[in-house]
Amino acid sequence: MPVAWTRKDLLGLEDLSKEEIELLLATAESFKEVSTREIKKVPALRGKTVVNLFYEPSTRTRVSFEIAAKRLSADVINIATETSSVRKGETLIDTGKNIEALKVDIIVVRHNYSGAAAMLGRHVKASVINAGDGWHEHPTQALLDIFTLKEKLGRIAGLNVSIVGDIAHSRVARSNIWGLTKLGAKVIVCAPQMLIPLAIEQMGVEVTSDIDEALSNADAVNVLRMQFERDEENAFPKQLEYFKDFGITQERLEQAKKDIIVMHPGPLNRGVEIASDVADGANSVILEQVTNGIAVRMAALFLVAQANENISHDNID
Amino acid sequence: MKILAMTILIKDGRVIDPANKIDGIYDILVENKRISKVARDIDTQADDIIDATDKIVMPGIVDMHVHLREPGREDKETVASATKAALRGGVTSLLAMPNTQPAIDCPENAQLLKSIIDKTAKANVFICASITRERLGRELTDTAKLKKIGAVAISDDGSSVDNDELLLQALKKAREQDILVISHCEDKSISARGVVNLGIVSTRLGLRGIPGESEYKRVQRDLQLAEKAGARIHIAHISCKESVELIAKAKKKGIKVTAEVTPHHFSLSEEAVLGFDTNMKMNPPLRNKQDVEALKAGLEKGIIDVIASDHAPHTENEKEIEFERAEFGVIGLETELAVGITELVKTGLLAWPDLVEKMCLNPAKILGINKGTLGEGSDADIIVVSPNKEWIVKKEELVSKSKNSAFLGKKLTGVIEYTICNGKISYQNTSSL
């Protein structure tokens, strides 16, 4: 691999080159084996401290990062908003600087505002990994989706990948679009018109509101969770209506390629965006995604920690 | 007691005074706070002699859109700090927007602001009162009384008057009293919780968008109401191409409309927001490249009459936070002329006299104030500018109390060497000495 990782932070896939994404994937591949050992641990981050700073409720991403850090022998602290001084009005930058004052090496941040991870990264010398910021990006989720796809199909270039669901409010969709298109896949996004953000075709994707069209030629479909609990703008169709028009069912899959890969970032809404038999069926790789998430996050933690030892911090405020 | 009058002689500069159709090498003599003579080779003694060879000598800028924040938010800016910043930016007269705390919506509050100005202002400050009480869009203010205290315009800037009938009444009253109505055009039911222009950038960043529609629909309505009332109307900070088109049509039709654009809207597009820089967050938002082109063309064709800063100071606490939570607005007094020179004159879009017209003469005319000219007998508000000198906008050099400039780190052309305000050298660039 000719390219070296030089970034202190992992904020999104939009910023990354194809080579950097490939390096992340290759590093993840080499870490995957660790989780199959009897003693599931390597000393790569021994003596490093990782803080999971989560401003939004999350179980799977937080646990995945925690396990990844522990398998690299790092010490891990979890901070959730409910238990921190954030509730007392502390700003994100102040919180970040306080965490840094505890000599923490990596901050994994999940935040409800788009751009929050980037802002934090500009203000702390510690590495920042974006674990999801608003509707903006969720790079490690997209990386684990892509990692899983590549593992299953041997390549990304030339694949047809459809992303179905609430594209407008989805950080998973945005990160997947950047990652997949950079690696040469053809991406279709499929959603009700009101959940497709303006001008998204300029991100290099095709757009449709016809689920059968989205599935017809797809090598893989990534089914997004319908986050009904966040429908502040009342833009969402009713759950049953959505399932009827966009739900991934066995009948719909029968019209698609036989080996179509079905992915989902979880947690599932069975019977809303995906039928139970599909989620548990032969095409589904949903649990493998979860497993691969550990390797991908180990790679992210490892690469940013390594790079941060070799860079100057002159432009940190 | 008689104050000793200062005399200043400005020698050999390129004097640009569109009001008197002057553009050539002249000397200017300032006596008794006024311009006493504009001529070639004035040979006389003076307390100060400024060699303006290879420099532009123009009227002080009249910025008709400034948020002073005083009274109420003196942590952001004060009359004193803003007028000091203004002088560094070559602005000798400015119009103070009424969205202070309290709003300038009654004679008492106007009087309060006036007394602060009298005590602390370092440049000429004119008052814009609000159209409605507390700028809530419900009850009209007493414009006759406000005018008596010194208000030269009314505006609910920051908000649009939503009620058509109420704005129509305001326009009719304003016509009777010959006071200017300045309109902030925004339909908040459309802009809603948006924070950036609606388009590819809002999509890429995962931020709520504000469509141009929220502005131009209101421009359209306000033009209709102004026509109906037979009143003058000035459209503040236009940002999108549809607004330019609507104003062009209205002007053709004879509607008494004038329009303004900010330096950030004609020089920056929505791409500047990529990276979540909150100094690129303003209302209206930075629009797309076609809009920016339309704004420039609007300036070139005279559809847009005025360049004004919409100077909107905010503290670091209000800006250095998550993008969606950060305040809208940027400061602009200290950079507006240089942005105009860099983006409009250097590029050949506007000739120097056109820029002077849009920054000095036109706003003065629109406000009906006796400024923006270098005619003999007029107030000695004069600036001397090095037109080709480059500088970089640095946070630590900004005079304004707040540092939220959209041009931090940018290289601009055009340095103000002297600002003469009311016959006194009120600012002198020392970095060149």
List keywords for this structure.
heterodimer, A: 317 residues, alpha/beta, four-stranded parallel β-sheet, 11 helices, 37% helix, 14% strand, globular, B: 433 residues, eight-stranded mixed β-sheet, eight-stranded parallel β-sheet
What would your notes on this structure say?
- The complex is a heterodimer of chains A (about 325) and B (about 425).
- By secondary structure, chain A is an alpha/beta fold.
- Chain A contains 11 helices and 9 strands.
- Chain A has helices spanning about 20-30, 60-70, 90-100, 115-125, 140-155, 170-180, 210-215, 240-245, 250-255, 275-280, 285-310; strands at about 50-55, 75-80, 105-110, 125-135, 160-165, 185-190, 205-210, 220-225, 260-265.
- In chain A, helix 1 (about 20-30) crosses helix 5 (about 140-155).
- The longest helix of chain A is centred in the last third of the chain and has 23 residues, at about 285-310.
- The model of chain A has no long low-confidence stretch (mean pLDDT about 95).
- By secondary structure, chain B is α/β, with parallel strands linked by helices.
- In chain B, about 30% of the residues lie in helices and about 25% in strands.
- In chain B, the strands form 3 sheets. In chain B, strands 1, 2, 3, 4, 5, 16, 17 and 18 form an 8-stranded mixed sheet that branches. An 8-stranded parallel sheet of chain B has the order 6-7-8-9-10-13-14-15.
- Chain B is globular and about 65 Å long.
- At the A-B interface, helix 4 of A face helix 6 of B.
Summarize the structure.
Chain A is of the alpha/beta class and 317 residues long. In chain A, 37% of the residues lie in helices and 14% in strands.
Mind telling me the C-alpha Rg of chain A?
19 Å
- Indicate the mean pLDDT of chain A: 94
**Biggest pleated sheet of chain B:** 8 strands, mixed
Count, helices of chain A: 11
Low-confidence stretches of chain B: none
Low-confidence stretches of chain A: none
Strand content of chain B: 15-25%
Shape of chain A: globular
Beta strand % of chain A:
5-15%
Oligomer: heterodimer
Based on DSSP secondary structure assignment, what is the total number of beta strands of chain B?
Answer: 18
Mean pLDDT of chain B: 97
Question: Helicity range of the residues of chain B?
Answer: 25-40%
Instruction: Work out the largest interface and the residue count of each chain.
Output: A-B, 25 and 19 residues
- Name the strands of the widest sheet of chain A in spatial order: 7-6-5-8-9
List the helices and strands of chain A in order.
HEHEHEHEHEHEEHEHHEHH
